[in-house]
Every structure is written in structure tokens, then in C-alpha cells.
Amino acid sequence: MARKKTLGPTDRELAILGVLWAKGPCTVRDVHEALHADADTETGYTTTLKLMQIMAEKGLLVRKDAGRQHVYRPAVSEEKTQKQVVGDMLDKVFAGSAEKLVMRALAAREVSAKELKRIREMLEKIEGA
């Protein structure tokens, strides 16, 4: 049976997007260096270049020519991408159940008091609406 194609960004694409969301528009070299600053494994520059070219073709990145360099920026905001990825996961893994998603998220890792406070505030806002 053929595998369903993933609609959202892959893990490697999300890593590149993360660099661009944090730093703003960058060249391939800037992104490549940021990705490998703390990494134990290193991929080649041309791998990063090819992945970013594919991301531009997919509409995930926008490329602007700046002389001999190409400067890339995300085509979509971090928030919009997060909503898409969470929505896909909600449908695929949790059968559309927001309750199951939230319960697993809270059980998966320790949640700080600050995060719990913000979650409570959000729930109160939703209940009041």
C-alpha cells in the first residue's frame, strides 16, 4: 500500500524553518552553520542547499537573489506552521480528540508553574467566550 504523503514540513525542514524564524532572512551558509553549531552529526553544505531549494519549490521558503547569494525567509509564520502541524497530528494520532492531545502533552514532560498558569488562563478565556 502506498504511503500517504506528509502535508506539513519534515523534521529537517522544521529545523531549517526554526533557524529562519529565530534569525530572520539568511543565506544557505548562515542556516547550515546554525544547524551544525551544536549538532553531533554534520551533513554537507550541498545537502542543506538542496533541502532549502526543495523547500522553496514546496512553498515553505521564499528566495531572494542578493548578488551572488540567495537569501531565504520562511513563507509562512511560525504560528501558522505550528497550527498546521498540530492539526495534522490531532487528526492522525489522536483521532481528532483535543482532550487526548492535551492530556498526552501534559503527561509527556514536566510542565512549569508558569506554563500551567498560562494554560489555566487560556482555558478560562475559552470557557468565558
Report a brief summary of the structure.
The protein is 62% helix and 11% strand. With 129 residues, the chain is mainly α.
CATH class value of the largest domain: Mainly Alpha
Proportion of residues in β-strands: 5-15%
CATH architecture heading of the largest domain: Orthogonal Bundle
Instruction: Report the radius of gyration as a whole number of Å.
Output: 18 Å
How many helices does DSSP assign? Answer: 6
Q: What fold name stands as the CATH topology of the largest domain?
A: Arc Repressor Mutant, subunit A
Broad shape = elongated
Order of helices and strands: HEHHEEHHH
Instruction: Give the integer mean of the pLDDT values.
Output: 90
What does this structure look like?
The protein is mostly helical. It has two domains: 64 residues, Winged helix-like DNA-binding domain superfamily/Winged helix DNA-binding domain (Arc Repressor Mutant, subunit A), CATH 1.10.10.10; 51 residues. The protein has six helices and three strands. Strands 1-3-2 form a three-stranded antiparallel beta sheet. Helix 1 crosses helix 2 and helix 2 packs across helix 3. The chain starts with 10 loop residues before the first helix and ends with a helix. The mean pLDDT is 90.
